[in-house]
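Work Package 4 report. The design task specified in the project plan requires that, given a folded chain encoded as structure tokens, an amino acid be chosen for each position. We show below one input record used in the internal validation round.
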């Protein structure tokens, strides 16, 4: 099998009903398969997938979705690790259940990987499904991935097309292939052999930032990642946890700090964490002043959770540094997006 497209699902029947038929219709090829890995859902997800499979066969689509059923919710990271261990494909695509794909969306990604053997993972151009549905003309990029991810000096991720909460309209300004620092877990195409050799996503993250952590390890071990905008998908975003959810805030801040601790070279680690101490508490104070008390406390809890997790992550850091072959990654920006965004008022 050339490629397995894996959709990890947890109580996402509504999204599967809306988007799984389009994935099957636009991925109907003998070299491809679509798999839904169900993470212990308690809704009617599995029954719905079976019904969709029956329905699409009557429409001439020959490749129904395979179903992997797990007894519990293993989270994004371990759920995908388990699913990928069950396939025998050259490539796998991690695809969120709330993504609408377009005609022939998969071919540009695979063709690019076939031509560039130094690239371990790539993503399409990810546009906002919500803006497509509510606006006429140009649509906006989607927050999670946009046109390829980068990271600033202090460990804050951003994208071509999205910095902080500012998201650009897509006017073709990023329609060139570009290597980047990270690609989005909303739609990530990766070489299966490389994914497994690196140990996959870190299950201790549970959810959020784990794909950036994986890409950091890829970069550090001389692999490249890229955005291939000739492939286009539309992402709803926030289907599991919406952007203002305190649980999401906690996971993003905690996992971001753990990612920095795991991967940052010794020469920079403590100065980055020193600055982040002040920036994170400033973010908590800002949420508190604006009445977002649950988010403010989520950031503070994330800081403490990070500190208590250091002993568990120390062996991972040691192993990552041992396997690092690229000491100075040019794909990590020397800018501070906090300074650029809030002080210099830059939006791109």
């Amino acid at each position: 099998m050339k490629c397995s497209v894996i959709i990890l699902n947890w109580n996402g029947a509504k999204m599967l009903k809306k988007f799984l038929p389009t994935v099957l219709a636009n991925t109907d090829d003998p070299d491809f398969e679509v798999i839904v890995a169900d993470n212990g859902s308690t809704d009617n997800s599995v029954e719905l997938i079976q019904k969709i499979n029956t329905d699409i066969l009557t429409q001439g689509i020959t490749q129904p979705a395979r179903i992997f059923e797990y007894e519990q919710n293993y989270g994004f990271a371990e759920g995908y690790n388990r699913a990928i261990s069950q396939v025998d494909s050259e490539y796998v695509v991690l695809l969120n259940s709330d993504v609408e794909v377009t005609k022939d969306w998969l071919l540009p990604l695979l063709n690019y990987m076939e031509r560039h053997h130094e690239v371990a993972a790539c993503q399409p151009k990810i546009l906002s499904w919500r803006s497509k549905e509510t606006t006429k003309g140009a649509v906006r990029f989607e927050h999670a991935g946009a046109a390829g991810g980068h990271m600033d000096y202090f460990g804050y991720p951003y994208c071509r097309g999205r910095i902080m909460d500012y998201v650009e309209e897509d006017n073709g300004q990023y329609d060139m292939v570009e290597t980047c620092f990270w690609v989005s877990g909303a739609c990530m195409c990766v070489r299966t052999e490389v994914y497994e050799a690196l140990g996959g996503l870190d299950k201790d993250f549970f959810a959020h930032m784990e794909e950036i952590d994986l890409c950091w390890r890829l970069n550090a071990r001389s692999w490249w990642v890229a955005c291939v905008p000739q492939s286009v998908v539309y992402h709803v975003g926030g289907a599991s946890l919406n952007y203002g959810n305190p649980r999401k805030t906690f996971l993003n801040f905690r996992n971001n700090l753990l990612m920095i601790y795991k991967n940052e070279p010794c020469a920079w680690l403590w100065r980055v964490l020193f600055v982040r101490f002040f920036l994170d508490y400033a973010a908590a104070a800002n949420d508190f002043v604006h009445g977002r008390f649950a988010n403010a406390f989520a950031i503070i809890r994330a800081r403490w959770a990070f500190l208590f997790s250091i002993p568990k992550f120390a062996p991972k850091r040691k192993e990552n540094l041992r396997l690092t072959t690229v000491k100075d990654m040019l794909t990590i920006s020397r800018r501070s997006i906090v300074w650029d965004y809030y002080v210099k008022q830059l939006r791109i």
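The mean pLDDT is 93. Validation will be extended to a larger panel in the next phase.
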